[in-house]
Each structure stands twice: as structure tokens, then as C-alpha cells.
Amino acid sequence: MTAITHIYNYTVRCPHYKENEQTATWLNHIEVNQSCEIALDRITKWHNLSGTKSFEIDDFVIRKADNEEAYFAMQSDRLKHDGHALVTFKIYLDNCCQDASPNKIMEHLIDDYQQRISKIE
């Protein structure tokens, strides 16, 4: 059995305000943390509220929440030296982000995640 050795939680909140004179964009509002509690909370919530399958990118299945304007996904990956990574993604969309593409956001996040795990020795 392989232990979970690395956890990544991505959260994107589409902003409805400008910050420091920068253009309001989801690229400025990406949070990444490694909290086990957040990962477990998300897995538990999503198990009970699985949402509706929206699209797939590579091996990731992205679902749309039924009760909020949010998209989510999770996956685990085997790593070198008997390690294991768990990743969760959550994208919050609201009225300000009608032009934000969940597909484009997920492609960006997945690429970032894959770069991170490729550097693990």
C-alpha cells in the first residue's frame, strides 16, 4: 500500500473586483495549499454531492456542482519512490466571470499540478 505523501488543493475564485490596479482575472486568484483537512473535506462533500459530469481533460473528470456555480475535480497519482499524490480542484464562478472558461482554467491548473509533481524526487 502506498501512502499519500503529497497533497495539493487548488481553488480559483473568479473576482468581481480589481486589486492593486490589476485587471480582474481568475489568474490573479489561484490558491494552492497542501492541507489534508481541506482535501478530506472536499472528498467527503463531493462523495455525497457528486454533481454533474461537465467535461474531461486527460484523465481528469470535471463535474459541475448542482447547488452552486462551481466546478470540481480530484485525482491521485503514483510518484517515484513509492509516493502518492492527491490533488483536488475547485473553481468558483459567479456573475462577474461569465467570460471565464472552466475548461481553460482547468487546463492551466492541471498543467501547474503536473509540473509540480514532475519535480518531486
UniProtKB/TrEMBL annotation:
Top-level taxon in the UniProt lineage: Bacteria
Descriptive protein name: Cytoplasmic protein
Species of origin: Shewanella livingstonensis
